Amino acid sequence: MHELGRNNVDPTPEQLGRMRALVRQAMDEGAMGVGSSLVYVPAAYAGTDELVALASEAGRCGGMYISHIRSESSRLIEAIDELIDISRRSGARAEVYHLKATGQSNWPKMRAAIARIERARAAGLQITADMYLYTASATGLDSKLPVWIREGGHAAMMERLKQPRLRARAAAEMRARRRGWSIMQVTGFKNPALDIFAGKRLSEIARMRGTSPETAALELILEDDSPVGTIFHLMSEDNVRQGVVQPWMSFGSDAAAVSAEPPYTDSPTHPRAYGNFARLLGRYVREEKLLSLAEAVRKLTSLPAANLRIADRGQLKSGFFADIAIFDPKTIADRATFEDSHQYAVGMRHVLVNGVPVLRNGEHTGDKPGRVVRGPGWQRCK
């Protein structure tokens, strides 16, 4: 964004040099590494060589390359290969951000994706992944629009959507891709006039509006002047289980911070915002016994801390910061659902952050002892 803006252009050598300097500066200021979100614009415009150059700077400072890879569906394997190639060429550790295979026809690719990562690790590359524990993703509905209509950022996209000719062209391209509109659940809107559609599948919204799902999607984005938050029911439970047991897999919610009170409760959200970690401990450890409690705790604590090179955290160890969660392994469970998403998990008794209780008997104490956590290049990477 600093150098290339939102346009689909390659950096000049001078621009790439300045981009590399920005990475070094960020690492010196405490960043953990370089991240990319290659299904979104403008990150989607970045080529592999550009990403190698930037990841190299992070790697020299002990940082890693974490990527929302270029495809999680039809080109999943190619996207995994690109991440591995970037790690190999840059020397940086690399992590796949929420590894998954979306779309039923792509579900069998999860096994091949895991095999690719295993092969790279066996060859000496430090490749890891993280995941959330649900069979639905969540992002903006605008992510399903053609890349050309999103170029230049939100304002430019809105101007294109105002033109009937361009909307018709976009709808035709979307129709040709044969997306499963019935698996897309719209969560909420800025425009109160659209609230009647919150929580409904896009196929149902299209019927209510008397139009096609493609046209409905384009019109909702235009009328709301927003990306339109959407849940996509795209994944396989068997694939979730495959991911959970991988020793190099850690877990993250991929959710925004919310609270079970207004205004957050005015519209639904993805249940992972409340239940992801309790779901691991309750469903996959206690009920399904896919992994031991000790292994699950490792994947929630010391593994991500080690991957990110976060010093003095992630273990109960003398001299480390006392970040401690005390829960009942017999009762911990997620309660949030797609139908009733604003529900706190149960079974978490006490939480200490930097040695200070912030949750006592399930109630917030009011203390806020958090500190800035800095990465491995802090004050040594200029």
TrEMBL record:
Ranges that cross the membrane: none
Annotated SUPFAM superfamilies: Composite domain of metallo-dependent hydrolases, Metallo-dependent hydrolases
Record carries keyword Hydrolase: yes
Gene Ontology MF terms in the entry: N-acyl-D-amino-acid deacylase activity
E.C. number: 3.5.1.81
Pfam family, one: Amidohydro_3
Residue span(s) of domain Amidohydrolase: 266-358
Lyase recorded as keyword: no
InterPro entries: Amidohydro_3, Metal-dep_hydrolase_composite, Metal_Hydrolase
Keywords from the named record: Hydrolase
Enzyme class: hydrolase
Protein name as it appears in the record: N-acyl-D-amino-acid deacylase
Organism expressing this protein natively: uncultured Sphingosinicella sp
Lineage: Bacteria, Pseudomonadati, Pseudomonadota, Alphaproteobacteria, Sphingomonadales
